[in-house]
Every structure is written in structure tokens, then in C-alpha cells.
Amino acid sequence: MQSYVIHLIRHGAVDETLKGKYIGSSDVNLSRQGREGLVLIRETAGYPTSVQRVFSSPLQRCTQSCELIFPGHEITCMSCFSECDFGKWEGKSAAELASEPEFAMWLQNSDKTPPPGGESGKEFASRVSRGFERLVETLSAEGITESALVTHGGVIMTILAMYGLPQAPSYQWRMDNGYGFSLRINPFLWMRERVAEVYDTCPAAPKSEG
User: Fold this and answer.
1) Are β-strands 164-165 and 196-202 bridged in parallel, bridged antiparallel, or unpaired?
2) Mean pLDDT computed over 119-131
3) By the 8 A CB rule, do 78 and 131 touch?
4) pLDDT band (50, 70, 90) for residue 207
5) CA 8 to chain centre
6) How far apart are CA 48 and CA 147, in angstroms?
């Protein structure tokens, strides 16, 4: 039975995140450092070269990353893989929000408490999970055996916490900009248990000698 490989890759760096601001649905560009970082990873570690289809969050920091990671590939944008919407807190830092009671409530229970005008953790996870299952259906229907999804750190951590094997909480799936994880989906296991094997980092970890 044919398996399906999906490489989950976090977009390159943006200035706002480096400044400690909450950037979810805001459509910001890659920073110069972000662009240079992706090119460096591509030229040294190397991204997968046999990808048949590239999927992306529609936000510019992801589509711009796709163009640098997989030059020449057509990009299929899926809005379900946008980062969590922080509502009125977009573009603000934790220090700027420290005096707001709603911010303290959100920090204590973000799953149930959304930012003003934004998404709760539960709403975000539900959106991402529906999108990921739809993506797997697309790969199966179109016979795409190797693909890449360039998206946001929060999206990747959510996908892996919900579907990844070995099982681990989302914070254990953190990754730097330009890096991520490779999944292998066995159709039989997917239909039975909705799980995907996390078999490597992306780019792949160097093989040890000896």
C-alpha cells in the first residue's frame, strides 16, 4: 500500500517576531535575515528535492519562503494553515499587554479564552485539523506521494501534537525558522487511527559515521 510523505516546514524569520510581538494573522513580509537564512539552509543542509506539490499558508511570509525553499514550484495556498488569529493583540508584545485582564486569562487557558476578536486555541486546533485531514485526502485522491507544507510554527506544532507518532505535547515539537519535520502517512494506519509517523527532521539530520 502506497504511503505519503509530507514535509512540514516553518517559514523564515520576520522582524516582528524577533521583536517579541504577537504576529498571527498579520500579513508581514520575511525579513532580510529571514530570506538569507532560508537560502543558507537550502545551500548547506538542503531541502527535499523530489517534492511533487508545494502547499502553503496564504500569508506572505510563507509564500515568500516557498519561493526560496522550492524555487520554480507552483504554490497551492490553503487558508486553513494560516497562523492563529490574535485579534486586537496582533502586533503587540507581552509587555504591552501585561496590564490587560483578558491577557492574563488567555495565558491561563488559551484553549477556551480567545484574544479579543481572535481565535481560541480550541478553534485554531479545530481549523488546522480539518485542513490537515483535507490535505491528506487530496494527496490520496491525486496520487501525490511526496509534498511539502510551508506554514507557521503554531500550525506545525498543532498538527504533530494531534497526529504525530511518537506522541508528544505541542511544545516538544518546536522548531527554528526554516526547519521542520517529515511525516510518513500509511493509509491503513491513517484510516484506522489517524496517525502519521514523524520519521525525520526537515532538512534531514546528517547521518552519523562510525
Assistant:
1) parallel
2) 98
3) yes
4) low
5) 6
6) 9
- What pTM was computed for the model? 0.95
Q: pLDDT tens for residues 67-98?
A: 999 999 999 999 999 999 999 999 999 999 99
b/e sequence 104-133, b meaning 16+ C-beta within 10 Å? eebeeebeebbbeebbbbeebbebbbebbe
Q: Which triple of cell numbers denotes residue 133?
A: 485531514
What residues have CB less than 8 Å from 152, skipping those under 6 apart? 10, 11, 24, 57, 59, 62, 81, 82, 83
The beta strand positions in the chain, using DSSP E, are: 4-10, 53-56, 75-77, 146-151, 164-165, 180-185, 196-202
The rounded distance, in Å, linking the Cα atoms of 82 and 58 is 7
Q: CB under 8 Å to 167, separation ≥6 — which residues?
A: none
Alpha-carbon distance values, 136 to 9, 140, 163 (Å):
16, 6, 12
Q: Which triple of cell numbers denotes residue 84?
A: 492563529
Angle between helices 60-69 and 32-44 (to 10 degrees): 30
> At CA 129, angle to CA 137 and CA 181, rounded to 5?
85
Phi and psi angles of residue 124, each rounded to the nearest 5 degrees, phi first: -60, -50
What is the β-pairing status of strands 196-202 and 180-185?
Answer: antiparallel
